[in-house]
Structure formats: structure tokens, C-alpha cells
């Protein structure tokens, strides 16, 4: 695979390293984001809701969503077939995985009760296309839950990379992750975060949603990074409601 392919399919090789994802899933920032997404999924009022994860990657949160809402029909959408394959290996049913762009979800209009997305919007060149598509796909009153790296991405991404590095180095010491897996994961994160297209402040995220016909219900931070200047918000997490 050449570099141009990797730009079209971000994180293309990361799906190969499940041992690394087993560590990421346990990190405090990821657990906090997952807990809030699951709280919002549990609170969907309709019975047997249609839930879509936009940019679901290897299926970590998708599996959790299925566990906390057994009556729900939960789909995973991802642009990268390598991630989709990994999600299937991790137990996401094949029929619930769709290889698609979040800007064109291949889902019927006004059919979904809830869409959630973790750590995807910051990588999108045109995030407004995702919001417009979510608006099309959701039923009236449906929820759109987004967690994404905010405006501090470029200033503090080294702090975040060091945070990942600390936990992965400990996993290498324990022998559960190989030094090669850690190196590739960290290198790819450095590359994709450097090229990040849309690190948005919580205010920009609010405006983006409101422009596309959403009301904002909750705005919070799921990860605050420790920097030399003190704690700074890094991941924002927002719940929108389609008007
Ligand atoms: C940082 S990973 C996060 C994966 C997953 N949400 C998680 O939390 O483990 C970003 C994911 O978004 C996917 N992605 C990036 N751009 C996308 C797009 N335009 N449409 C669909 N998926 C996209 C990538 O392939 C990757 O799996």
C-alpha cells in the first residue's frame, strides 16, 4: 500500500494490531468516552433502536453498545476495509459491518435512532458533510453523539502521544505487546495527528451541529491532557439532538 492509499484510508494498518487495541480500550480516556457513549445509548427511549457507529474501527465501542442495549440493532460503518475485517474477527457480526464513508452512510433517510462516533471527526477534511449526512439519516428527535480531539490537538498532541507511549511501554514490558507493534502504532498516530484536518473547539462543534439542524444537549470533555502549562481539554464529547 502506498502513502496516497493511506491518506484515503487513515489508520489503514492499525487494524492489524489487536493487542494494542486491547490496551487502548483500558486507558482512562477511552473508558471515560466509552462510559458516556454507553450511558447515552442506554437512555435511547425507543425500543429496538437502530444505532449506527460512524467510523467504528476495530469495533471496541460497537461490542460494548451491543452488550448494553441487547434490543438494539447496532451497525458499524468504517471507510477502511482492514478495520472492518478486524471488527469482524473481534465478534462484530458480518451483516452489521458496512464499509462506507461517514459522509455517505448508505442508510435510509430518517431511519436511525442514534449515531455515535469516537475519534473520527478530527480526521475528516469536511466534517460538515458528516453532520449533514447524520441529519439525513436520523429520525426526528434522534441523538448524535460525538467525541473528538479538540482545538488543542496540534499544541499538545505530543503530550497525548507520550500518554499512549507510557501505557504501551508498560504492555511491552509485560510481554503483551511487541516493541514492533508499539512502534508502528505510535508512528502512525504521530503521522495522522500531524495531518489532522479538523480539530474543533467545543464552540465550533456546537455551531457545526446547530447549523445542520441539531440542538446541543450535553458538552463535556472526556480527556484532559496534563501539559507543562497545566491541564488542557483534549477530547470533547457532545450529544446533539435532531430537531
Ligand atoms: C482513531 S480511529 C477510531 C476508531 C473507533 N471509533 C475507536 O474508537 O476505536 C478512526 C476511525 O475512523 C475511520 N474513518 C476515518 N475517516 C472516515 C470516513 N470518512 N468515513 C468512515 N470512517 C472513517 C478510520 O478508518 C478509523 O477506523
Write a brief caption for the model.
The chain has nine helices and seven strands; from the N terminus they run αααβαβαββαβαααββ.
Please, could you describe this protein's structure?
With 243 residues, the chain is of the alpha/beta class. It has a single domain (3-154, 192-242), classed as Rossmann fold, CATH 3.40.50. It contains 9 helices and 7 strands; from the N terminus they run αααβαβαββαβαααββ. It has helices at residues 3-8, 18-24, 28-42, 60-68, 81-89, 127-137, 153-174, 179-194, 202-211, and strands spanning 50-54, 73-78, 97-99, 112-118, 138-149, 214-227, 230-242. Strands 3-2-1-4-5-7-6 form a 7-stranded mixed sheet. Helix 6 links the parallel strand 4 and strand 5 (138-149). It is globular and about 50 Å long. The chain starts with a helix and ends with a strand. The protein binds S-adenosylmethionine. The site of S-adenosylmethionine (SAM) has 19 residues, from helix 4 and strand 2.
Short descriptors:
7-stranded mixed β-sheet, 243 residues, 9 helices, binds S-adenosylmethionine, alpha/beta, disordered N terminus, Rossmann fold
The main sheet orders its strands as: 3-2-1-4-5-7-6
Unreliable parts: 1-10
Mean pLDDT: 92
Q: What pattern of helices and strands is seen along the backbone? A: HHHEHEHEEHEHHHEE
CATH architecture: 3-Layer(aba) Sandwich
Count, helices: 9
Q: Could you say which structural class the secondary elements and strand pairing correspond to? A: alpha/beta
Q: Tell me the distance between the termini.
A: 43 Å
Q: Give the beta-strand count.
A: 7
